[in-house]
Amino acid sequence: MRRIIGLSLSTKTIYKILKRHGLNILKCKAKIRTYKQFAMRHTNDMVQMDILGPFYLSNSSERNYIISCLDDCSRKVASKWSERKRSVDVLNVLEDWIMINGKPDKVMHDNGKQFTSRIFRRFLVHNHIKDKRIPNCYPQLQGKIEAYNKIVKNEFLAVEGIPNMDDGKLRYDMFVKAYNETREHGGINGLTPSEMFLQRLITSTTIHTRTKQQSVTHVGNQKCNLSV
Questions:
Q1: pLDDT tens sequence across 35-56
Q2: Are residues 16 and 49 in the same domain?
Q3: What is the spatial distance between Cα 17 and Cα 210, in angstroms, rounded to a whole number?
Q4: The model's pTM
Q5: Directed axis angle between helix 165-181 and helix 193-213, to 10°?
Q6: Is residue 161 part of a domain?
Q7: Bridge partners, 52 (sequence order)
Q8: 82: closest CA among 69, 94, 95, 67?
Q9: Averaged pLDDT, 57-64
Q10: In 85-189, which residue ranges form alpha helices assigned H by DSSP?
Q11: For a FRET experiment, which of 13, 85, 119, 162 has its CA 20 to 30 Å from that of 130?
Q12: Are 168 and 81 in contact (CB under 8 A)?
């Protein structure tokens, strides 16, 4: 509403209006944070990876998973609905991220066997990507992707009446696109993840260009260009 018509309302007010009309299908849990969450300064400094599931459709006993790769700086995500959670499935999502957004410097993940397997570690080494495992029993270190998993549970799985897996995959692709490009994110000052990603990418490029242009040293009254 703020983006389209310039009207800003609090979450509590919006929830009351939805409740009055019987449309409060999402829970309203207002929490006051007393800490500042750490975030990488630049896009692709680090991505977080995780697997959500298994979850089941109402008319099926087959297991389903959501595999996600999220940029720590912008919250932009590459994510897929999958019937399995093998290392190759995880790598497919990471490769999708790299093809669209570029190669990350570091990948953070838990100690699941998909991330500690030889094929996964070999891929990181071959592509010069640092491997960052979180200690056991410390999922809060991956708070951003855990928060995304919660969004998927509350805003997709809990409200979408999914008749079958094929339909679910199609709807989930649309959900990921909407999350990246149209859903305002409270953790990045109301920007969408795609806007934040582009903003930080442009800022990083501009700073690098200025630094390169201004890298000169004075010798007497003359300037000597330094190669960067």
A1: 456 788 899 999 999 999 999 9
A2: no
A3: 49
A4: 0.76
A5: 50
A6: yes
A7: 66
A8: 67
A9: 90
A10: 87-101, 113-116, 118-126, 143-152, 165-181
A11: 85
A12: yes
Residue in the block written with tokens 């298994």: 54
Amino acid 118 reads R
Three-state DSSP class for 69?
Answer: strand
Instruction: With a cut of 90, say whether residue 11 has pLDDT above it.
Output: no
User: Region 51-71: what's the mean pLDDT?
Assistant: 94
Domain residues for the domain of 128 are 35-203
Map tokens 């990418």 to a residue: 201
CA–CA dist 22, 44 (Å, integer) = 42
Which residue bears the tokens 């570091």? Answer: 106
Q: What is the residue type of 70?
A: L
What does the pLDDT look like over 89-113, one tens digit per residue? 999 999 999 999 999 999 999 999 9
190-216: burial string, b at 16+ Cβ within 10 Å, e else: ebbbbbbbeebbeebeeeeeeeeeeee
Whether residues 153 and 191 fall in one domain: yes
